[in-house]
Amino acid sequence: MMKLVELAVGKDPALSFSPYVWRTKMALAHKGFHPESVFVTFTDKAALEPAGAKTVPALEDGGKWIADSWDIACYLEATYPDRPALFVGPREKALSRFFNAWVDRTVVLGLFPVLILDIHALLDEENQAYFRSTREARLGSAMEEYAADRDGHVANLQKALSPMRYILSDQSYLAGDQPGYADFAAFGPFQWARSVSRRDVLEPGDAVTEWRERMLDLFDGFARQAPRVA
Predict the structure, then answer these.
(1) Which ranges constitute the DSSP H helices of the chain?
(2) Integer Cα distance of 206 and 209 in angstroms
(3) Contact partners, residue 223, CB within 8 Å, separation at least 6
(4) Rounded to whole angstroms, what are the CA distances from 174 to 93, 103, 123, 166, 208?
(5) What does the pLDDT profile of the chain (230 residues) look like in tens digits?
(6) Cα angle 193, 38, 46; round to 5
(7) Rounded to the nearest 10 degrees, how much is the dihedral formed by the CA atoms of 221, 226, 229, 230?
(8) Could you give the 3-state DSSP secondary structure of residue 67?
(9) 27, 42, 95, 133: which is deepest, by most CB within 10 A?
(10) Residue 147 to residues 58, 70, 115: CA-CA distances in angstroms?
(11) Which letter, b or e, does each residue of 114-151 get, where b requires 16 or more Cβ atoms within 10 Å of its Cβ?
């Protein structure tokens, strides 16, 4: 059986909240796989060592380890071509990789100041200390200062989502009539937000919100049923 190394918050070891893990979980579900979950925390990443990785996700399949969400997607497509496709052909693969990078640099980074304090609040004491020290060193400021204008950050995110909104106003999924890897790449950050925060970063009636609801319903409500902050 496949094993997927995921990031848990510490206080709730079943709450998987990495945006990169979630895009992989959705890609796996699309292919018809639901691997065994192996959880790590920020301060205990021993389960990643066999993969030679320092960050999640990492997938074990028949003794073979693959790390990084994009590399896992490429592995799944190459190894299981008889199952539903994540992307079709080299051109769609290249476009999916571009969109994957756009999501990382626009949506994930746009959400981070909105979610950083919510994530910190969910962690146990040891992981809180690690999270604060490493993130503040990277940011060059206190988390509270970085996240001070949450409403402004959400407004900026809404503007950044304009290309997605435009496409989704005319079709059900980013990949067309059916979901593909572009949808899973984009969905990961929104499931991240949904997992760790009580605040909805999307607005009712928005095309992106309606798409997220369709994504939550995929695979018998797989993502909708996942643990999240109470």
Answers:
(1) 19-30, 69-79, 89-102, 109-122, 125-139, 143-146, 150-160, 162-168, 181-196, 207-221
(2) 5
(3) 22, 25, 26, 187, 191, 215, 216
(4) 14, 12, 33, 10, 10
(5) 899 999 998 778 889 999 999 999 999 999 999 999 999 999 999 999 999 999 999 999 999 999 999 999 999 999 999 999 999 999 999 999 999 999 999 999 999 999 999 999 999 999 999 999 999 999 999 999 999 999 999 999 999 999 999 999 999 999 999 999 999 999 999 999 999 999 999 999 999 999 999 999 999 999 999 999 98
(6) 105
(7) 70
(8) strand
(9) 27
(10) 30, 29, 8
(11) bbbbbbbebbeeebbeebeeebbeeeeeebeebbeebe
Q: Which among 16, 174, 40 is positioned nearest to 107, based on CA atoms? A: 174
Q: 């796996």: which residue's tokens? A: 28
According to DSSP, the residues that pair with 66 across neighbouring strands are 59
